[in-house]
Amino acid sequence: MAQFVIAGEPVTSVSGEETKVKNPSTGELVGTVPKGTREDVRRAIGAAEQGFKVWSRTAPGARGEILAKGARLIGENIEELAASLTREQGKPLKEARMEIRRFQHTLEYYAGLGKNLRSVQIPIAENRFGMVLRLPIGICGAIIPWNFPISLMGNKIAPGLLAGNAMIVKPAGTTPLTAIRCVELLCKAGLPAGALNVVAGPGSTVGQELLENPKVTKIGFTGATSTGIHVMKVAAENLKHVTLELGGSDPLIVCDDADLEEAVSAASVGRFFNCGQACLAIKRLYVFDSIYDRFVPKLVEKAKRLTVGDGFNPSTRLGPLHTDDQRKEVEGQVADAVQRGARILVGGKRPEGKAYECGNFLLPTLLEDVPDDAKLAQEECFGPALPIFRVKNIEEAVERANNSIYGLGSSIYTSDLYKAHYAAERLQSGYTWVNSPQIMFDELPFGGWKQSGLGQEHGWEALEHYTLSKSVVISTRPVP
Question: The CATH number of the domain where 390 resides is what?
Fold first, then answer.
């Protein structure tokens, strides 16, 4: 049984209860973890208070060196961590390795910023100067989802720790094992006891205590928009700082002058990576009418070649959905579109055969003639289904792309500088890719618009969300 990490030590829950973790491909038990309670969170908060006293006074350069050592430990254990992630989350082993490497890179990126953290001195008047200090907030909670449980944890703990905060991680109840192991390794890198803790358990208890406890001064959350609204409401009771990375329905626009092969690949990877279970993923495809009949058959053939199966099978390109409820939700969105007149081009059903009976599998699905008011067009689709729409020009494409409550990511493929610039300026999203696959970069800030979130992760800007600014005025006049 995996155990929590509080004050740098493995501990079990005061409840004495356990949560079972199962493989989404087979339904088999892969491990257990203690079922956390509010009291467990309070224990972690007590440890974090002590850890903060030491860690906040550690020089930023030294903090960076410890994060760098932690990144090396993660890299040395990548095969163990990737296998653990595939077992509990379901994604193909290749994608699990990519996620662990992304986590390692995020740690390395912020470790490199450690020696560059500095205050600013500003001359303001004769015999006076000002200073602007950036100081850690205090105890920060990191609430992590199940789809990318390690890389999304890194987005929070790397800048949070570098800034000098103490962190308490709450992993998703279905994917706690790899996160706990990563925290164990980071603690071995030299973090003071209590600087980094992890407590698994239900959102209604563990998550709620993090939201309500006044000693937790910042929450970093990634998850559904509806849950993010709840996080914001509860956090407001104590005026907690919040960073929210929420749902998305990212559009991809393919213009008549695009490189079709590159655009087809981007659409396929952008929709079907991690079985489509990503906030930041292609979820609506707008194709210029003049190339529609050439583009769509290429994408259909590519989708047909994607092998669905267990994540440990080297030929698998599409693992299972994480839960059966998640699969049923996607199936319901597809059925709603068909009922409204849409046509399924490929997929739209579960794969057949004994190998698929125990897993939450669904074939990659493409649909056309989907009405704009269908659930598949208006809601976030968290699975391997993609609606395709015809558009006449860039103006129509951008207008329809913006017809969403979400504004997370967006993409365009074109060789026309005007179209590229038009989309980059007018697409209502926090990230736009031009002739580029949807790859995140730690060097660039990332945050959602509209109902896709608040605040930013990645980049130097993330540090601003884990620090408080303080102005200081100093007089240099001699004391009489």
Answer: 3.40.309.10
